[in-house]
Amino acid sequence: MITSLLIANRGEIACRVIRTARRLGIRTIAVYSDADAGALHVHEADEAVHIGPSAARESYLRPEKILAAASATGAEAIHPGYGFLSENAEFAQAVMDAGIVWVGPNPSSITAMGLKDAAKKLMADAGVPVTPGYMGENQEPEALAGEAAKIGYPVLIKAVAGGGGKGMRLVEDPAAFIDALASCKREAASSFGNDHVLIEKYIASPRHIEVQVFGDSHGNVVHLFERDCSLQRRHQKVIEEAPAPGMDAATREALCAAAVRAARAVDYVGAGTIEFIADGSGALSADRIWFMEMNTRLQVEHPVTEEITGVDLVEWQLRVASGEPLPLSQEELTIDGWAMEARLYAEDPAKGFLPSTGRLELLQFGEAEGGRIDTGVYQGAEVSPFYDPMIAKVIAWGEDREEARERLGAMLEDSAVWPVRTNASFLVMALQHCDFAAGRVDTRLIGRDGEVLSQPPVPSDEALQTAAEALVPAVLAPGLRLNAAPARKAWFLLDGEKIEIALEGEGSEEPANGVLVTEQGQAWLLEPWRRDGAHGAAAGSGAILAPMPGKVIAVDVSEGQAVTKGQKLLTLEAMKMEHTLTAPFDGVVAELNAGAGQQVQVEALLARIEETA
Ligand code: ADP
Ligand code: ADP
Ligand code: MG
After folding, report:
1. Residue 450: exposed, middle, or buried by beta-carbon count in 10 A (0-12, 13-18, 19+)?
2. Confidence class of residue 477 from pLDDT cuts 50, 70 and 90?
3. Which of the ligands is closest to the CA of residue 229?
4. Three-class DSSP category at 153
5. Residue of the nearest CA to atom 22 in ligand 1?
6. Ordered domains of the chain (ranges, CATH)
7. Distance between the two ends of the chain, CA-based, in angstroms?
8. Which of the listed residues 191, 386, 388 should we mutate to test ligand 1's pocket, taking the one with most ligand atoms within 8 A of CB?
9. Distance between Cα 300 and ligand 3 center (Å)
10. pLDDT digits over 114-152, tens only?
11. What is the pTM of this model?
């Protein structure tokens, strides 16, 4: 077994690989860019090497920097994760040439599957059914239009070098073909440096079903069953599950056998995924499922397979790369229960899914039996604009599909992230969509009902009431109560928007300056509205507010004490980070509301310094 491993990636997948490597006693080496100096994968690795500026093309995508880091740290092997250099055959070759173990397939397998047209031809020759279409050399617009007519509309134009859902155009009307082709080629040239396209029959009611395959260097190839990734937004996966709803034993056997044939055709070693497109207009049947492409790496959604098979796929990758045979035979692999994964993103569905970057002041994940969180961030970390804004993969296992779906929904509903926006409530609504709940999934569901699913959620009246009570002073002295207190109307700011709330309770003895309302996987900041406009941080007032929810771990001053500007007042701890709060100017501690060990809300008034004249 290898004894040290460099992970040429970042975020959740780097952390995921580190977790298994550590369990196996392997020394781990992280690489990081400027933006990632404080990232979770850097904390979790045994060593970390800085590889350059924040932009990926100047750091994570630079083979020579990764190789230099490996040589400087004496790394025995390199794991590429997914994305970045994972499907770069030249990089894989360079790693091997440097005498380092490449945790992945042979470069020749990557090349064979790298272009969609060549891969489809290879698969057709190996007896694997491929999506009907044109994959020839002729790239003349008129010739391609002729091929599209022969295939029959609707058709899909696909960049042969495409990936990540980019470089694809659905054409439903022949009149739109030439324009769609030109725009697809432009996108392909700029994103992939290759403007060749293929034309495919657009499959009606498409379902994305893929098979996890695994090969070793002793000629063994097995499959680990299928995953259904049909819930997609713009050809990108949103929710994945295993097994696939409605998959019968005979169809599964035929599909998985085809996947193993596909892997064998390229002498596949390591973890790979064969992606198929299925006609979902009726029951699944092997003669209506076609090969689409192969991903020659670990897939984002690999956890759902791990959850139903009990296999740690990263462990298998490391064993196979070390020359060991596959730990289990095909007969020893079975499906236990059901698993579902949702990709929790820092993005705002209400604003066209624009990435939402910034500091994760609050980051809480819901918990459930059978639940699993794969994340690459922590509370207090930054979501930077440089990379994929994924916060976590939220995964749930259950005895059956319904249990997995309910657990995943509960985990997402109980998650709270602030002030960064997330797609959590969008995911919850997608899970509750009647078609999805019934297992009737196809890739166009979100396209059809996306507007409803991306409605911004609003907090419930109950939650607002409770929060508002904590923000207004008590009306009466404690102990004195009216039988039916008259409702008091008061103004508040909800995420900066002025709203009116009719209060029914008594208010609070010690009102807070702000309360985070968390519900439905979302978080909103409720603050008292002030006529003078001095909201929120009460700037310049000497108010010492908690910058995030956390625990007070030390108080260095007492009430009435004189302090000087910059003097340490107290220390707050919020997941893995300590924040020291200091005096903004010379003065006295006029108010002190914090004690060591106390949990505090964001913007809670911890202390107030009064300026000395
Ligand atoms: P999958 O089918 O597993 O979703 P994709 O081909 O869509 O695979 O891409 C794999 C993952 O790698 C995606 O989550 C994508 O965001 C990420 N990825 C791909 N290329 C890059 C890149 N250049 N930089 C950062 N992340 C990338
Ligand atoms: P990428 O390399 O971007 O992942 P794929 O070829 O895997 O490209 O296609 C991405 C998605 O596009 C699929 O998951 C599916 O939703 C859709 N798609 C691809 N080919 C077809 C097709 N022939 N008919 C219908 N939908 C398709
Ligand atoms: Mg794909």
Report:
1. middle
2. very low
3. 2
4. coil
5. 84
6. 4-103 (3.40.50.20), 133-201 (3.30.1490.20), 208-453 (3.30.470.20), 461-528 (no CATH), 543-611 (2.40.50.100)
7. 70
8. 388
9. 11
10. 999 999 999 999 999 999 999 999 999 999 999 999 999
11. 0.86
